[in-house]
Amino acid sequence: MKEIYCLPGTMCDDRLWQLIRPLMGDIRLHHIVLPMEDSLDQVVIALAELLPDKPICLLGFSMGGYLASAFAVKYPARIKQLMVVSNAAMGLMENEIAQRKQALNWVLKQGYHGIPKKKAIAMLGERNKKSDFLIELIQSMDASLGESVLVQQLSCSLERPTLWPALSTLPIDCCFCIGEEDVLLSGDTCERLQHYSNVSCHSVKHCGHMIPLEQPVWLAQKMKTFFRFL
């Protein structure tokens, strides 16, 4: 059976893949709920109990992309190929750290009332900022997971070392997919990643951070090609 194990991003559930699944034919996507642990290291160890104890095709989106990369570094024998979407396996940029700390402090003091519409819109590329469907989907996933998951995910992910060059030394093919309008990644991300011999990097136009929802056809094709399911 053709299978890809998929790690979601912050405050994303199985609906993250809903536009891609119909495009994958007989390829099965396994959505993995991120473990509720206090640190990224502990999350990775918990994922080792959830994922098959055999070489797998692993895909991670956003924070899940960082976790997939960390899993590959810690358990390289359990990875066939690694695809990272909307993440670069690097530490957070200073502005994102500041935003996360601000959000975390606000939630701890005031409680959580869901992701603001303005924040959901900021995750999207210019062409998609008026898509009620995408905005409402982001807000709905966030509402379903709720305050406790947000606090855990923000708290455990603030400290994340850059995983290069450790990832670049592994005998694993790695593919990175980046939205050209992703405000959470620097504009030269692909250029920097392509310096590594085991890495390919692809950018998609008219797309922000939410590639699986904004560009599902493009991403599905990249998945099938990279994981050699064509």
Q: What does the model show?
A:
The chain is of the alpha/beta class. It has one domain: 3-Layer(aba) Sandwich (Rossmann fold). It contains 8 helices and 6 strands, in the order E-E-H-E-H-E-H-H-H-E-H-E-H-H. Strands 2-1-3-4-5-6 form a 6-stranded parallel β-sheet. Helix 1 crosses helix 2. The longest helix is centred in the middle third of the chain and has 26 residues.
CATH superfamily: Alpha/Beta hydrolase fold, catalytic domain
| Weakly predicted, low-confidence segments | none
**Chain oligomer state:** single chain
Total strand segments: 6
Q: What is the CATH topology descriptor?
A: Rossmann fold
Name the shape in a single word: globular
Number of domains: 1
- CATH C-level name: Alpha Beta
Strands side by side in the biggest sheet:
2-1-3-4-5-6
Overall mean pLDDT stands at: 94
How much of the sequence lies in strands comes to: 15-25%
Q: Report the sheet with the most strands, covering strand number, pairing sense and barrel closure.
A: 6 strands, parallel
- Helical proportion? 40-55%
Separate helix tally: 8
